[in-house]
Amino acid sequence: MELNHNYANSLVSKLLFAAIKKSYPEVEYSESQIYESLSAPPNLKMGQVAFPCFPLAKECKMAPPMIAKTIQENLENDASVEETKLAGPYLNFVLKKEALAKNIIGEISSGNFFTKELTKDTPKTMVEYSQPNTHKILHVGHMRNLCLGSALVNILRYSGQETISTTYPGDMGTHVAKCLWYLKYKNPDPVPVENRGAWLGQMYATANQLLEDEIGTPNEESNRKQLTEIIKQIENQNGEFYELWKETREWSIALMKQAYSWANVDFDRWFFESEVDEDSLKLMKDLQAKGILVEDQGAVGMRLDEYNLGFCILIKSDGTGMYSTKDVELARKKFEEFGIQKSIYVVDNRQAFHFNQVFKVLEIIGFEQAKDCFHLQYDVVELPDGAMSSRKGNIVPLMDLISNMEHTITTNYLEKYRGDWSDEEIDKVARQLAGGAIKYGMIRVDNNRKIVFNMEEWLKLDGETGPYLQYVYARINSLCHKFNYDSSAQVDFGKLTHDLEEALLVKLGNFNSIVVNCAKQLKTIHLTSYLFELGKLFNSYYAECSIGGADDEETKLARLALAYSVGEVMKKGLAILGIEAPARM
RNA sequence: GCAACCGUAGCUCAGCUGGAUAGAGUACUUGACUACGAAUCAAGUGGUCGCAGGUUCGAAUCCUGCCGGUUGCGCCA
Questions:
Q1: Which of A2, A91, A119, A255 is at 20 to 30 A from A186, Cα to Cα?
Q2: Which nucleotides of B are covered by protein (CB under 7 A)?
Q3: Is ipTM strictly over 0.90?
């Protein structure tokens, strides 16, 4: 539940609540209902806050414009309100800029703005994201999941929701067997000393190709026998392949950790498939013994036809489990180990059917939390020539994207500082900007929309990108430094009279609401758009109004304070998206 | 066949819990650095919101049907 935390809207809803009570004593319209209904007029000349009177029309049995007029007549005077304006069915409020500035800039510079209680009674939530397979290539597709998941965790936490983050790597299954098979029987090359995780991914791709090529040849049957043996050894936890699995698995995990570290992502809990496999089968055998599961064509599972979810196989005819089997057990572990009330799965939309099945199975076997399990789906990342596939050989490995981006940024923008800045700083800023470009690019489009990844486009860094926003912060930081900004100095907020200053103040005041809205809708785009709009506004302001060269000292100080506030909000907003803002770039 | 998602400017996308004049980026044309950082800013060109109905004071937004595209739909994960 959202609390009233926006200064302007809280003020207006309080005044409106009293006026509505006075005008229509019989109508029930709570202060928080009013707060929620407030919107913004099309432009600031019409006011900063708009109250639409449509919702009241039915109960008051009166046309909205008349209601607006009646309410206006019953409004009490308030020192912070300049005037109210009737605009048809809307009642608009013009707040005094000075009051707006004093409150918003004051709260931002004191830091209180970012520590407000924004919501209450939110459920304890777990977010699972990043489910890469070991022994396979980590590619740009994984990046979308990682950026989205980590931003969402930050959004939920900022808005006051207790959130546990978790990752679920796939460290067993046929893909592992194929990779180990190739390593043992076919690979002629020595194991490299470095980057073994990436190398392993290539081994898998080669293995997959070779096995496919040998289908229909005399080798097919022996290959299959060898793969079965490998899988058996890993499951039974002994034999040379089990040892090889343990060793190679670590190479992939090291690569994952490297990627997570680059992305500044940290998980509260790592679940591995191998960790839930055995228990998941036990759980299913229990359920089977209780008669909850049925057998069908040799497999054991649950009939979900009445929910239009077909048959969910939980024990294959060879006695082993499926991915659904493990997901049921994993859910049980999450509920019991952490006592969560809500469980979010950030997984691409091809798994929609799978999760519907799993959630239904959980519900049927008696987990109440099943109704609060949510598959947050997103569309996949494709390349200009279609879906990524190892067969096509058109996979863009994650580390290629990262190093390409960092290299381009260094040569195009940072090389000019060489000698002036330390090499370490140049590398660090290149990493931060690459992070900004990649992360912002991954989460600025809606989850439901496919991303066609084009390396050249991504390297351009023009327009709506992470570095555009980082540049805003760097410029402000440089300004504050140059003019010795002091956050404790007295400021005459009456000096902020420009239209763009007002627009910036209103924008700044909306920050917390935007993040709460993102948390409610589990979306990142509202925040990315917001930050871009804030950045654009500031850049216009910067071009139009000289801050350092203001007419008088008071104006300069007031403008600096405003600029500083924009910088703080920008930095905070980017941080929520997982993006660092360098002090200079 | 069934289901989910997508269809808005040349291209990439916002706007979708109905509300004031449909917005950005990009591309293209033009202008602004002896300047608080030009990784920037300003201006212009560009739209039957896939199509057809319906709901109502009001629909890009909600409902129905159709068209086009993507992805799923029992022993891979």
A1: A255
A2: 2-6, 12-17, 19-21, 24-27, 36-42, 57-58, 70-77
A3: yes
